[in-house]
Structure to design on (178 residues):
């Protein structure tokens, strides 16, 4: 029979690691909520960000606990690289899904585009000018100036480029068309 007292330090380190992970997860959720409200990101989009941050913390906890309990670092790195290789092949097979997801994250965090903005997606074949209604994990939803609701893949929005319009631009376009 194994004596639990022989693993006293491992148990203590595991409890400390889990407490740190829980505190960090709680702090990051507050930061995401605050950033989402300031940046006008709707609740559904924030949920995606919550899920991704939870996944990151669970992964860190799994790695930390594995190392605390004495998993051989060399064996662990081989296991981890094998998993990452399998995921890499799967993502390459699904490049458009990964591309749209990455573009959505870029639109969430690194682009001045916000919900409610009037934009023009720079495309020579189509006039995509209108108001941004939502940005999901894969698509940008907008209502065009003529009232149509269109869905554009996020990677296409990033590739084509975006011009953020002011309200005066709509008045100038209307007067030029008359």
């Amino acid at each position: 029979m194994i004596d639990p007292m022989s693993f006293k330090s491992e148990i203590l380190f595991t409890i400390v690691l889990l407490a740190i992970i829980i505190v960090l997860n709680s702090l990051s959720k507050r930061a995401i909520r605050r950033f989402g409200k300031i940046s006008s990101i709707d609740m559904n989009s924030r949920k995606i960000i919550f899920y991704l941050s939870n996944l990151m913390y669970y992964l860190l906890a799994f790695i930390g606990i594995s190392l605390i309990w004495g998993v051989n670092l060399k064996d662990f790195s081989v296991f981890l690289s094998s998993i990452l290789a399998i995921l890499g092949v799967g993502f390459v097979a699904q490049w458009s899904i990964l591309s749209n997801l990455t573009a959505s994250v870029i639109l969430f965090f690194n682009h001045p585009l916000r919900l409610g903005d009037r934009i023009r997606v720079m495309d020579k074949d189509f006039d995509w000018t209108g108001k941004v209604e939502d940005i999901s994990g894969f698509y940008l939803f907008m209502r065009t100036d003529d009232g149509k609701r269109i869905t554009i893949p996020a990677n296409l929005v990033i590739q084509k480029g975006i011009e953020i319009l002011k309200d005066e631009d709509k008045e100038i376009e209307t007067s030029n068309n008359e």
Summary: The radius of gyration is 23 Å.
